[in-house]
Amino acid sequence: MTMEPRKESVAAHYKLPWFLTYFAKILDFFSRSLATRFLWKIFSGPIKFKVPSRELDFYNKTKQTRININSVGKKVILYRLPNDGNKLLFVHGWNGRSSQFYRIIDLLSEEGFDITAVDLPGHGRSRKGNTSLPEITDVIYEISKTQGPYHALIGHSFGGIAALNAVRYGSSYEKLVLISPGVYKIEPMFKTFVGLFGLNEEDYTERMFNLAESKYGASPDEFSPGKFANQIDINTLIIHCEDDKEAIKEIAENLHGELKNSILNLTTGLGHRRILRDADVAEKITQFMKI
After folding, report:
1. Coil, strand or helix: which one is 239?
2. Which residues contact 228 (CB under 8 A, 6 or more apart)?
3. If I label 168, which of 3, 91, 184, 185 is the partner at 20 to 30 A Cα–Cα?
C-alpha cells in the first residue's frame, strides 16, 4: 500500500510576481474560461535560466544537432558524445537543460558509454515556447524510436516522469535512472500551482484538466505514475534527496514501492538540482550502468 504524498512544495521561481496573480483574479471575476486559459499558458511555459560557468564546457565537448520531432511539430537540440559502449539517453527536468548532467555525462563518457542528451521543447537551447507532459512524452518516445535503441534512459525530475510515460506508450530500455522524480500523482501539482494565484484549487484544476484533455485527447491524470508504475518491470535506480524541497522524498518511495524492479538510494544535503553534480551520485549511476 502506497502513502498519499502531502502537498508538494513549490520552487522559489514559481512564487509569481504580484501582477500575474492580480491579473488572474481579475480574469476570474469576469470569465473563468479566460482565467483557465491564462493559467494554462503560465503553467506550460518553461523558464530559461542563465547557464552557470561550470556547465559551459559541456557545450564545447558535445556535437549539437537540431532535429524535428514530427509527432509534436517542433525542433529540439540533441547533444552527442559518441562512443563504442551502450547508448544512453538523458532527459532533463522542467525549467532544466541537458548541461545540468555534465558531471554524470563526463564520467559515463569516460567509461565508454555513448551519450545522447536532449533540450526539450521550450528548454535550454531549443526554441522558447510552451510545452506539456504529453508533448514531452511524445518527444522521448520519438527520439528513442528514431535515434535509438537506447540501453538506458536517465531522467531528472519531470523528465523522469515523462520517461515513465514513454515506457507506458511502448519505449523500451534495459535500465532506467530516475533522479529526484517530480510527481507521483498529477492532480496535487495542478492544485499547488492554482493555489499560487489564490484561486479555487478544485474548480480550476478541473477546468485545466478539461482544457488539457481537449488539447491532447487524454486527461493529465492518466500521466500520473501512480496509475501505471506497477506495470513497469525495467531495472530501475531511483536517487532522491531526503531534504529535496521541490519534490518530496515520498514520491521516490512510492515509485519504489510500485515499480517491479527498482533500487532506491536516498541522499542528504543535495536538494533537487545539486544532486546532478554530486560525484558520489555520478559514481552510483555509473556502477549501475556497468552491472
Report:
1. strand
2. 164, 168
3. 3
Cell digits of residue 115: 551519450
* Range 61-83 average pLDDT: 97
- The C-alpha atoms of residue 236 and residue 93 are separated, in whole angstroms, by 18
Q: Per residue in 113-143, pLDDT tens?
A: 999 999 999 999 999 999 999 999 999 999 9
Q: Give the 3-state secondary structure of residue 64.
A: strand
Q: What cell does 4 get?
A: 498519499
How far is 152 from 144, CA to CA, in rounded Å? 10
Residue percentage of the chain with pLDDT more than 70: 95
Cβ-in-10-Å burial (0-12, 13-18, 19+) of 181 comes to buried
Residue type, 109: S
CB 239 within 8 A of CB 274: no
Q: Which amino acid is at 41?
A: K
Q: What is the C-alpha separation between 111 and 1, in angstroms, rounded?
A: 39
> Using omega within 30 degrees of 0 as the cis cutoff, is the peptide bond preceding 149 cis?
yes
Half-sphere exposure of 227 (CA within 13 A, CB side): 12
C-alpha to C-alpha distance for 151 and 182, rounded to whole angstroms: 23
Rounded to two decimals, the pTM is 0.93
Neighbours of 58 (CB within 10 A): 21
Least confident window among 17-21, 140-144, 184-188, 226-230: 17-21
Rg for the chain, CA atoms, rounded: 18
Coil, strand or helix: which one is 208? helix
Is 12 a residue whose pLDDT tops 80?
no
